[in-house]
Amino acid sequence: MRYERKYRISACDHRFVEQVLRNHPASFRKIFPDRQINNIYWDTIGLQTYHDNVVGIANRQKFRLRWYGNDVGEVIAPKLEIKIRQNELGDKKIFDIPSFDLHQPEVHSDEIEQLTRSNTNLVPVLLNSYHRSYWGTFDGEFRMTIDYNMRFHSLLNEGAFRGYRHRDEAVILELKYDEKMESQSDRITQYIPFRRTKNSKYVIGVERTNGWLVE
Fold first, then answer.
1. I need a surface site. Which of 7, 52, 147, 166 has the fewest CB within 10 A?
2. On the CB side of 161, how many CA atoms lie within 13 Å of its CA?
């Protein structure tokens, strides 16, 4: 399992955050080209996964379909990811899912129910998209991602997807490392000039698309 330390940054854009990483004493460097990430989050009609996150349930799961590139039309080579959270540690299980039309995400409902071993009738709740920049140390022990241009669409109350109406202008910096590296993490975190925060794109997307989020 690994640690995922998040920093929600509202006062600057992603280019400034990239410069911070270039100047970090650990010499972070780009390890992969930037790309667009798309997710469809699955939850119960009563949003049990959302509520578990908000109240801080220590051991919880999150379910999403993820693919890369274009977010309209046919979804090519998606993956079902089951995100597992145990206190501050995280892990995930990944399964291949057949391609499908973005306007019919429920086509794989039965398969997702089987893979997640869920008896709670999961439904597609939220579509979101953002761009990600990938960084890492030369020894490969610590990675950073920078997420920006975040957009959301509710699959419960906004009908078929025709475009995004909800956005989040913040930049999310995330530090990731295996639990065995926790004793060495201070050499990374002490030079990050941002305040560590709790941040869930799923939670923010649900609240923003339902008008619950007040900023």
1. 52
2. 24
Under 8 Å between Cβ of 142 and 177: yes
Say if residues 119 and 145 touch (Cβ distance below 8 Å): no
Query: CATH number for the domain including 143?
Result: 3.20.100.30
DSSP string, 164-188: --EEE--EEEEEEEEGGGGGGTHHH
pLDDT tens-place string over residues 13-27 = 999 999 999 999 998
Domain count, the chain: 1
d(CA 161, CA 61): 26
Q: Are 197 and 8 in contact (CB under 8 A)?
A: yes
Cα-Cα-Cα-Cα torsion 156, 168, 129, 165, nearest 10 degrees, comes to 50
* Residue 117: alpha-carbon gap to chain centroid: 22
CA 151 – CA 168 distance, rounded (Å):
6
CA distances for 28 relative to 2, 12, 137, angstroms: 19, 19, 5
Q: Is residue 47 part of a domain?
A: yes
For the question of whether the overall pTM of this predicted structure is more than 0.85, the answer is yes
The per-residue pLDDT for range 137-162, each reduced to its tens digit, is 999 999 999 999 999 999 998 878 88
Amino acid at 82: I
Can you give the residue range of the structural domain that contains 166? Answer: 2-209
